Amino acid sequence: MVSGLAGRLAAVDAAVADAAREAGRDPAELTRIVVTKFQPISLVRELATLGVRDMGESRHQEAAAKAAELADLDLRWHFVGQLQRNKARAVRAYAASVHSVDRPELAAALDRAGEDRPPLDVFLELDLTGDPGRGGVDPDRAEALAEHVLGLPTLVLRGVMAVAPLGADARAAFARVRAVSERIRGIAPDAVAISAGMSGDFREAVLEGATHLRIGTAITGKRSSAG
User: What are the Cα distances from residue 161, in Å, to 38, 148, 158, 183, 227?
Assistant: First the structure.
């Protein structure tokens, strides 16, 4: 049984590489993002010593504090959670990318906050559940949102993001994401990225073309707290 952070990281990376080869893909093309929500600063520093540079956070307050305390490290912070418009400027202070753009108003707020900052990579979050109470844009409206983002000068549309619904066939869910991605590329040829796959379903995501994997507990272990 794999134990220890280094061992878990190596095991996940090996499984990702196996999935990539199964799909006829080069593992080097994939970006593994370690989601460090609820994990201590010390664990993030240990990840950095193991060569991890892409970190994911889903709560602004926690992400901002970690980014500030770890400013001495060469890290790329990916914001992967739901985001309110009034937090857009604060998130742009540390995030290299936002994976959860799901409405024009949020995209516009992120753009307005970027006048004096480097361009921000963004992913369109797709809603695969049909539940209006959850985040994400309806896949049928994704192209319209993409058109809007393409008109915002400080944002760079990288691609799409999604979470497989609980209890659903993950491979089928990610196939839907891949189909939307192909449509988006019809209007934004450079938006080739697919942010999909977490600890329990990254293999299925890789098989369906995911380029960015958001993996938490399979690498970090159980979260230290829920607060």
Answer: 22, 17, 10, 14, 26
Q: Which fold has domain 5-220?
A: TIM Barrel (3.20.20)
Residue ranges with strand state E in 126-222: 155-161, 193-195, 212-215
Q: Are the C-beta atoms of residues 191 and 157 closer than 8 Å to each other?
A: yes
Per-residue model confidence as pLDDT tens digits over 189-214: 999 999 999 999 999 999 999 999 99
For helices 41-49 and 5-22, give the axis angle rounded to 10 degrees: 60
Task: Enter the tokens of residue 188.
Answer: 């934004």
CB atoms within 10 A of CB 218: 18
Rounded Cα gap, residues 156 and 175, in angstroms: 24
Q: How far apart are CA 92 and CA 120, in angstroms?
A: 8
Domains of the chain by residue range: 5-220
In angstroms, the CA 201 to CA 224 distance is 22
Angle at the Cα of 106 from the Cα atoms of 64 and 164, rounded to 5 degrees: 80
Question: What Rg value do the Cα atoms of the chain yield, rounded?
Answer: 17
Residues 52-63 have pLDDT tens digits of: 999 999 999 999
